[in-house]
Amino acid sequence: ILHCFLFLLVFGRAIHAIARISDEFWFDPVEKGLALRSVNSSRSAYAYVFFSSMFFQHYCWTAVSQPCQKEKQLSLPCKLIIKSVLPVFRSVNVLERNVEKCSIYTNINDHHITFQLLCKHGVVKTYNLTFQECDPLQAVFAKHMCPNILKVHSRLLADTMIHFPTSQEEVTLSVTPLKVCFKSYTEEDTDFSKTMLTEIQLNPEEFDYFQVGVDSEVTFCLKELRGLLAFSEATSVPVSIHFDVSGKPVAFSIEDTVLEASFILATLCGIEKETASQQPPCFSQRQESNAAAVASKKPQWNGNAPNTEPAKPASPLAKQEVKNIPRVREREVPGTEGAALTEAEDYAMLEGEAAESHSQKVRRLPVVLTVENLGWFSYFYKYCIFQFHSLFFGAVSCTEKDAISHTFHSLATASDTEEDFGSSQV
Amino acid sequence: MRFRAKIVDLACLNHFSRVINTIAKLAKTCTLCLTDSKLYFILSDKVANGGVSMWCELCQGNFFDEFQMEGVAAEHNEIYLELVPENLSRALKTAQSAKAVKIKLTNKHCPCLRVAVELPSLSSSSRIVTHDIPVGVVPRRLWNDFREPSVPDFDVSIYLPVLKTMKSVVERMKNLSNSIVIEANLSGEMNLKIETDLVSVTTHFKDLGNPAWASEHGCQSSAQGRDLESMAEARIDIKKLQQLLAGQQVNPTKALCNILSKRIVHFILLHEDVSLQYFIPALA
């Protein structure tokens, strides 16, 4: 049961930022605060915003007792359709002027979350939204293992991104120890006579913190980032960028005493192209079309996976393929899946995520795996244009007892983790 | 073929941006002609444009601090480039506080106009934003398509009413009809008329004044013999007129139109350093 009042502008911006990732989000109140999480349909972007209880004027959380009570009880997180929540926080600027208080109540039995806005002149707006119970979602990303870390005020990032047209899908961040630049993404078959390219060069001195361990060029989806930029401007907390070489995810995060947020985006890793396809350079499109191409070989995860509606298919090619993404059962038996995941899970543990090293906690919380660690996936992915490293989300039911032998109820499909190992043709 | 230019003065930069924004609203693609002393933005009257044509002339000295160009050959010292003005507009949009803007013709993957904006930054070195705008080089054999259009022997020449007023009138009329009739006479009266099955609306303007140049222009006989009250009219596409009026970001020093009855309406908008001519043909 959650009951809190809150700073509308910041909260509203957080919702808007998450809305850019997906249509629905996980609403997860815990004792320490409220966590909001979202992942996009192609699993290439994950957003996490956490408001500590101190952010709210009043925060009251009580655990709901559940039959299995081995560890500290999590109240069951729930999933909300974001479209229903957005209207509540629509024009945040206007809201701030008119709304005096906002409270959020949850009632687990009723499957309702109530947002109540107490406005001026005695007007009270109440929104009752139904939620679905679901397995928890969490991505774990080893930020401290990243060789490249940049920290900069959100104003600078916003000022940089403003030079790109709003229709720009993908942007490449290129760093060396001496310089930084953001540029429009181009690939070999870009029609240069039709596209306008933009490049912004920044001086490392402009950054609050600048560490470049390895020269790299990472390409990520700008649209998904814009939400975080607006949100961080509202909080005026500097943005940290953690990344590695191309292909590994990039994390944009902000952190202060009462809130933290992370947007983790998959990055492109260009390898040899398959000559036949004419895929347009957009993440979700490419992933979906690649997914269709490898549909028959996709490993299928159990669980209430949200449907993979493509984000914004702009090309007709992508559109028709999207319709045919079947949820095909993987050939391997669940046992193997579980075992394989276990390896990965171990890996995740070995990665040294301090917070997750406790075996009990790992058992309960889902694990994020980067594809490259799971060699066995390579078997399935020979049709693709570019290699994606994206985040995996496995969900674990809290009733699991044994870390090693259970099967993961995963919310993710592995379809977004195509790897083109040219040599390993099956 | 080489071209490089630089703008350092903020006021000039803003003025130039405004001109480009106006052009961008009028044409999706157009031809840029560069000569030693002038820049021309040209839209020729092809069917694809709906028959409208545009001729916009700028004096480079009024905008650029540095301007060097080298045409195809010595006796043809001109460069004709086909481009999307919206791209140029976008590149300049975020240059509002720039220290300098440099424009250069380059040919990396394909011919481009490279716009490099130097922005102030917190650190010692400036932030540089580069936009590569793809352009098409127009070959010399096609240059004749882009000559300055000759001004037709019009029937009436009249100054336009305040553009803002005219714009709001036309905008409202646009919701009711696809075509509009402009009629004017040599007594400074102009009417904007629309007529549909349900309604007809006419807006009357008077005391607009007629420019004196009719007598210089060689169509003396027709102008002199013409009855001062008689209206010359043309029915034109209302959207084109609305585009022209909506695109004006700054009030021109002089705004006038020439009407050749049932054939064409020729608009001339003059600013200090820029002249814009826009031809809208009459509908059948």
TrEMBL record, chain A:
Protein's UniProt keywords contain Nuclease: yes
Name this protein carries in UniProt: Cell cycle checkpoint control protein RAD9A
Gene3D superfamilies membership: 3.70.10.10
Top enzyme class: hydrolase
MF term (GO), any: double-stranded DNA 3'-5' DNA exonuclease activity
Pfam families: Rad9
Catalysis: reaction(s): Exonucleolytic cleavage in the 3'- to 5'-direction to yield nucleoside 5'-phosphates
Gene from which the chain derives: Rad9b
Stated family: Belongs to the rad9 family.
GO biological process assignments: cellular response to ionizing radiation; DNA repair; DNA replication checkpoint signaling; mitotic intra-S DNA damage checkpoint signaling
Entry's localization field: Nucleus
Region entry Disordered, spans: 294-318
Keywords for this protein: DNA damage, Exonuclease, Hydrolase, Nuclease, Nucleus, Phosphoprotein, Signal
EC number: 3.1.11.2
Signal peptide: 1-17
GO cellular component, one term: checkpoint clamp complex
Described purpose of this protein according to its UniProt entry: Component of the 9-1-1 cell-cycle checkpoint response complex that plays a major role in DNA repair. The 9-1-1 complex is recruited to DNA lesion upon damage by the RAD17-replication factor C (RFC) clamp loader complex. Acts then as a sliding clamp platform on DNA for several proteins involved in long-patch base excision repair (LP-BER).
UniProtKB/TrEMBL annotation, chain B:
Gene3D superfamilies the record matches: 3.70.10.10
Protein purpose: Component of the 9-1-1 cell-cycle checkpoint response complex that plays a major role in DNA repair. The 9-1-1 complex is recruited to DNA lesion upon damage by the RAD17-replication factor C (RFC) clamp loader complex. Acts then as a sliding clamp platform on DNA for several proteins involved in long-patch base excision repair (LP-BER).
Family classification: Belongs to the HUS1 family.
Compartments in which it is found: Cytoplasm, Cytosol; Nucleus
GO cellular component: a single term: nucleolus
Broad class of the protein's primary localization: cytoplasm
GO BP terms, alphabetized: double-strand break repair via homologous recombination; meiotic DNA integrity checkpoint signaling; mitotic DNA replication checkpoint signaling; mitotic intra-S DNA damage checkpoint signaling; nucleotide-excision repair; response to radiation; telomere maintenance
Keyword Mitochondrion: no
Domain of life: Eukaryota
Subunit (UniProt): Component of the toroidal 9-1-1 (RAD9-RAD1-HUS1) complex, composed of RAD9A, RAD1 and HUS1. The 9-1-1 complex associates with LIG1, POLB, FEN1, RAD17, HDAC1, RPA1 and RPA2. The 9-1-1 complex associates with the RAD17-RFC complex. HUS1 interacts with POLB, HDAC1, FEN1, PCNA and RAD9B. HUS1 does not interact with RAD17. Interacts with DNAJC7.
Coiled-coil residue spans: none
Keywords (A to Z) from UniProt: Cytoplasm, DNA damage, Nucleus
Protein name per UniProt: Checkpoint protein HUS1
